[in-house]
Amino acid sequence: MDTSGVILLVLLLGTLNTVQCQYEESKSEDFEGSSPIDDIPEEEKYTVSALIERANKNAGQELDDPEIIEGDIAVDTGFQNAAPCTSRRHRNCKWYRSKDGRVYVPYVISSQYSSREKAIIVKAMNSFANATCVRFRPRKRRRSKDRDYLYIKSKRGCWSYVGRRGRRQIVSLARRGCVYHQVIQHELLHALGFHHEQARSDRDMHVRILYENIIRGKKRNFKKIKTNNMDTPYDYGSVMHYSRYAFSRNRQPTIVPIPDANVAIGRATQMSSWDIARINRLYGCEAPVLV
Ligand SMILES: [Zn+2]
């Protein structure tokens, strides 16, 4: 290599290094302190469940907070074993379908957010409109149909109730750690009635849970639920699927896909096509909605 080649190489390496440093900085300023989730392989650190797990270290500990189960699902104390919204017997937690075939979900976004954060939240909400009949739209106070609505607020951590629960319901998206497209989609999917993919009734045919590697006290986060899977296949690419190292106490995997242990799981950066199909099936909007 001649001199100019060497200079070019040095310059290139320098640039790469700067980019890497900036990346580290922007990531690390979101979070404080370290936890087992910080010790997992680099490519697993920014999965939906790793982001949520990191942001939720102190979730559910404010006085007026609901109890948080399964990592990021809010329940009122005493209802920890509430039936899943998507089970056949509990359809009343769905949002209402309007005569025009659409499902309008009114929302209010707290003034805590910056305009940049608000734009990210609204963009994630609008992403549902591209592929489903669900329409998140600002709540109109005087409209009686808007009695039930989502209140997007920055509390401790990222969490949501499962399904519509009546009147105002909080979806917490902490400014620190939760305002990411895939995390917002994940919490909104809970609010629409969906559970985690690895909680599915048929999950044991597709993943193995390694209980010995789970943080003590967090094993309950991996329980199975009698879900209605809407005739959709098990989906490793769902934005609702935990990642391989979710709630690991020892940097070892807690969820391993079977039969092929090397398949990537829980790395979705947006809703999968099966996530979208499930929304459309639950809300009966499979036919294309006319725009
Ligand atoms: Zn969740």
UniProtKB/TrEMBL annotation:
It holds the Pfam family Astacin. InterPro entries: MetalloPept_cat_dom_sf, Peptidase_M12A, Peptidase_Metallo. Its cofactor is Zn(2+). The keyword Ion transport does not apply. Residues 81-286 form the Peptidase M12A domain. PROSITE patterns: ASTACIN. It is an enzyme of class 3 (hydrolase). Its EC number is 3.4.24.-. Keywords: Disulfide bond, Hydrolase, Metal-binding, Metalloprotease, Protease, Signal, Zinc, Zymogen. GO terms for biological process: proteolysis. Zn(2+) binds at residues 186, 190, 196. This is Metalloendopeptidase.
